[in-house]
Structure formats: C-alpha cells, structure tokens
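Narrative of accomplishments. A recurring question from our advisory board has been how the design workflow behaves on a single, concrete structure rather than in aggregate. To address it, we present the structure tokens for one chain from the evaluation set, followed by the sequence designed for it. No filtering or post-editing was applied between the two.
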C-alpha cells in the first residue's frame, strides 16, 4: 500500500512550505478509506440503531455491532460485550472513575496514579472523591516500581496509569504494573490513548481490568472512543449516564438496566464515527502494527540523532523504551516561540504542557515543544524539520 497517498490532507502547503505534520500525538490524520466510510454512511445508511423496525436501521445496527466485534478482536478482549463505545479516552476514564468510585470508594479511600498522567487520568478521580497517591518517575521518564509497590495500603481501591506518556513517550511496563496491583487485590485501569496506534495491545495478555482509548489518535474519526472493561467488573458497577437504550424497564418507582454493553451506552451513539473507527482498524491491520512501530521507531531515532547535534537542545523524556514522541526545549527559549517559528516554516508541532502540568512541575519547565510521528511520516519530512530547527535555534539562543 502506498501509505502517503491515502492522506490527501498531507499534500498541501502552508505559508508556501510543504506541510510537515508532526502533531500526531494530538490527533492523527485520516486515510481516504475512513473519510469515505463517513460520507457513505451519511449518504446511504444514516439511521438510529437498535430501535428502528426498518431496513436502514437494521443495516446500521448490524454494521455498528460488527465494529464492536472488530474492536474485540483488535485488542483481544474475551467478549464483545466488554467493548463500550464512548466519545473518547476522556469519556471512557470519566465513566470508569464515576461508576467504579460510586460502587467501591469510601471516604479517605485512595487511587494510585502515576506522575506522568494526562489530566484526563487525574481529574476524573478527583471529581469522584478519591485521594491520589502518585508513582514518581526518574529524570529519564521511567516509573519507580519500588515506590509504586510502597503506595498500596488497605485504602487503595484502584490503580490508573497510562500505557504510553503523551509528553515523554515512555512505554510503561503495564504487565508488571498489573501484576503488582493484582497481588494487592486491586484492579487497574490503563489509559491507552497514546499506545493503541503504536504497539500491539492485548488486554488478556496484559491482564488489565479497564483499557481506554480514542479513535481519533488511531487514524479514525473524532467523537468515538472505547472503554474495555472486564465483564465481572462491568456487571458490578452502576451505569454512568441514564437515558435511552441503557434500560430494561422504566417506571416512576424503579428502573432496571440493560445488559452489557448497552447499560453503558445511553442515548444515540455516534454511529458513523464508530463505522469510521472500523475502517481505521482495517487500515492499521492492512499495514500491520509491527510495521507501523518499525517505521515510527526509525523516524524517532533518525530525528533524535540529528537533534542531538543542535546547540542548546534539551530532551524531556529519554526512557529507553519509547514511542515516537520527542519533547524538547532549545536553551531557555519559550516552547511557544519555537512552535511559532516552526509553524511559519510549515512544520506542525504541539507546544505547552500537553495536559500534563505535573510533568512540567516535576522538571521545573513551563512546557515543551513536542514532535510526534505517525506511520505516514517520512525521513524527508524529518530532514525538513531538522533544517528548520537548525535555522531557528541560533535566533533563540
Ligand atoms: N492527548 C495530546 O496532544 P481525548 O482528548 O479524550 O481523545 O484523549 C485524552 C487523553 C488521555 N490520555 C492521554 C495519555 C492523552 O494523550 C490524551 C490526549 C492529546 O497529547 C490531547 S491533550
């Protein structure tokens, strides 16, 4: 497959420079197949699912449910009803935090998170009333597992950590984190927003209890995400939102809830986006996750090696096991200035705290510049990025 030609958005110029899109950790671009799935859905299939007694509704329902099975296979979940569609990682974690804590959290109970969590894996637990205990990490961006073991006590209710840090790129040792949590009889949620498009995810292999991710970071549409949960736990926790579809019977005195996964899918879902997610999975499977990882890893090392040679370059996050994310600063210059100058040369990166303010506090910095690669990026684009950095670095020192 000619990967590049699948992404029409990439062949444009900005400020008279070819666009070099290196903001893939924020969102990936969409291949033609995903775009066509969305337009075809609205041209030929649009209808409300699980309800209508007509042809279109039946077709849309069948396709929506077939994507659930596709996701089940993609992450190797045991049952298709363990796959809940949400609007994205943020909603998935809010769902678990709210429902799990309603069922299991008592006053003064604790949730263990890591110091490198996205705000989406911090704030929902705080909203649910938990006290947070935090796993520290080294200057390279590696979690301190000994410190982690010492955070458990009789008040620990759940652990919530990311698989990959969006700011540091670190791939965390999820299997080990799961084993340690389970040795303490504590369940564990994994935020997979930054792993799902880069490395193989097998939820049974990992042994985690919840796994959350977004479609838009894996070549799919915005507005759709997944919350995987182990059947036993999903049966134990209450619904998140009330409304249509999530009920069995409603009276003014008592409501009973639908079976899994519908108990957690209140209201009309984003059907077209779910179908688009199915297309995105097909796109990834056609290339193969190993090939995706190999391409991105090559770009990561090719870029990092050349960046090292630039005066004033400071890397934030140098763990040995990383995905294709490079966070950096040039001397004492503000990340926003670097990002703005790169933008004027056609290079799209993200600047700021990346919704991980505790990481910035840990390093005593205002933010970073972040370049992140996807499977459609090329060495030629890295060359343009490096040339741009070489041009702007002297202006900032
Ligand atoms: N990180 C970034 O530029 P949503 O917005 O719901 O799709 O994903 C939230 C989220 C949760 N966890 C991690 C590790 C993430 O990286 C993100 C989203 C984007 O890094 C936008 S802030």
């Amino acid at each position: 497959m000619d990967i590049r030609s699948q992404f029409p958005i990439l062949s444009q110029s900005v400020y008279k420079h070819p666009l070099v899109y290196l903001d893939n950790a924020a969102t990936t671009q969409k291949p033609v197949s995903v775009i066509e799935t969305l337009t075809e859905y609205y041209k030929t299939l649009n209808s409300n699912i699980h309800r209508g007694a007509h042809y279109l509704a039946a077709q849309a329902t069948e396709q929506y449910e077939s994507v659930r099975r596709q996701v089940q296979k993609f992450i190797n979940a045991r049952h298709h009803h363990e796959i809940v569609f949400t609007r994205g990682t943020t909603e998935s974690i809010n769902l678990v935090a709210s429902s799990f804590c309603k069922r299991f959290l008592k006053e003064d109970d604790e949730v263990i998170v890591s110091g490198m969590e996205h705000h989406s894996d911090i704030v929902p637990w705080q909203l649910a009333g938990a006290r947070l205990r935090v796993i520290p990490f080294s200057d390279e961006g590696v979690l301190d597992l000994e410190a982690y073991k010492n955070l458990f006590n009789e008040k620990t209710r759940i652990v919530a950590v990311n698989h990959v840090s969006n700011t540091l790129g670190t791939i965390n040792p999820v299997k080990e984190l799961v084993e340690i949590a389970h040795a303490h009889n504590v369940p564990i949620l994994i935020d997979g927003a930054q792993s799902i498009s880069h490395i193989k995810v097998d939820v049974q292999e990992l042994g985690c209890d919840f796994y959350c991710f977004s479609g838009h970071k894996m070549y799919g549409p915005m507005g759709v995400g997944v919350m995987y949960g182990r059947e036993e736990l999903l049966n134990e926790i209450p619904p998140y939102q009330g409304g249509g579809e999530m009920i069995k019977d409603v009276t003014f005195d008592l409501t009973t809830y639908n079976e899994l996964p519908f108990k957690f899918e209140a209201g009309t879902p984003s059907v077209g986006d779910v179908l688009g997610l199915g297309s995105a999975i097909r796109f990834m499977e056609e290339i193969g996750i190993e090939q995706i990882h190999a391409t991105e890893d090559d770009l990561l090392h090719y870029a990092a090696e050349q960046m090292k040679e630039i005066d004033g370059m400071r890397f934030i996050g140098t763990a040995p096991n990383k995905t294709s994310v490079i966070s950096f600063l040039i001397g004492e210059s503000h990340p926003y200035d670097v990002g703005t100058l790169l933008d004027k040369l056609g290079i799209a990166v993200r600047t700021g705290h990346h919704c991980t303010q505790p990481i910035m506090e840990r390093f005593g910095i205002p933010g970073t510049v972040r370049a992140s690669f996807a499977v459609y990026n090329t060495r030629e684009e890295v060359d343009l990025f490096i040339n741009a950095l070489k041009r702007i670095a002297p202006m900032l020192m």
